[in-house]
Specification:
The chain is mainly α and 232 residues long. It folds into 2 domains: 67 residues, Orthogonal Bundle (Arc Repressor Mutant, subunit A); 142 residues, GntR ligand-binding domain-like (Four Helix Bundle (Hemerythrin (Met), subunit A), Up-down Bundle), CATH 1.20.120.530. Strand 1 and strand 2 form a beta hairpin. Helix 2 packs across helix 3 and helix 4 runs parallel beside helix 9. The longest helix is centred in the middle third of the chain and has 25 residues. It is elongated. The two termini are 38 Å apart.
């Protein structure tokens, strides 16, 4: 199988994900060596290592030095429920809280935002764009964007409410963005465009549109997590 693309490692990772999804590669199965896989895909060892590292990051494979690389599980590990307080129920609760609060912050921000607020949002969008270019998830910039909107609402309590659970919100963002990074149906550009649409509505001081664009975005986040077995 020969691959030629600017994002070679992503194509390899997607192919391996598909093989795992379809059961061609079973949990616990040992993968061929990096050298053998590189020859199969017609790529360099460096590209192969990058692809395997991407799968390791989302928990699909485990690299045991001196023993080899093994399929760890069938579905991406987006949240480690075993050793932290962020359970599936709490992820669902966080999403419901975001839907209840952030639609209002977007609405208020469209009416009260300052030029400084818009610059803060624009800076966060620029960071997201760089993340897309560098094939990284960009959840830090994502959180900055949403907190900037909350700050622009000029309501201290709404901002503090989101800021107090910022670490947990960021984990759900990271999970969503990992799905987008490695999904063959959804792209990071779509996520970026959703944020841009929210920003443009706030810039235009269109209260109704800002609220609707935030609703659309958060519903997409929820659906993405539901489809990938994260939220019941």
């Amino acid at each position: 199988m020969k691959i030629s693309s600017q994002k070679i490692y992503e194509q390899i990772a997607n192919d391996l994900i598909e093989q795992i999804d379809e059961g061609k590669l079973q949990e616990g199965e040992r993968l061929p060596s990096i050298q053998a896989l590189s020859k199969t895909y017609g790529v360099s060892n460096a590209s192969m290592r990058e692809a395997l590292n991407a799968l390791r990051m989302i928990g699909l494979i485990e690299i045991k030095h001196g023993y080899g690389t093994f399929v760890k599980q069938k579905h991406p590990l987006l949240f480690d429920f075993s050793n932290q307080t962020l359970t599936q129920k709490r992820v669902k609760d966080i999403l419901e809280l975001r839907e209840a609060v952030e639609v209002k912050t977007a609405s208020l921000a469209s009416l009260r935002r300052t030029d400084a607020d818009l610059k803060e949002m624009q800076d966060a969008l620029s960071e997201m764009a760089r993340a897309i270019k560098n094939d990284t998830s960009g959840e830090v910039a994502d959180l900055k964007f949403h907190l900037a909107i909350a700050r622009a609402s000029d309501n201290q309590y709404l901002y503090e409410l989101l800021n107090n659970i910022a670490d947990k919100i960021q984990q759900t963002m990271k999970g969503t963005r990992h799905i987008y990074l490695y999904s063959r149906q959804k792209r990071m550009e779509k996520l970026f465009n959703e944020h841009t649409a929210i920003f443009e509505a706030i810039t235009q001081q269109n209260e109704t549109l800002a609220a609707q664009k935030m609703i659309d975005h958060l519903q997409e986040v929820r659906q993405t997590l539901v489809e990938n077995f994260i939220v019941e």
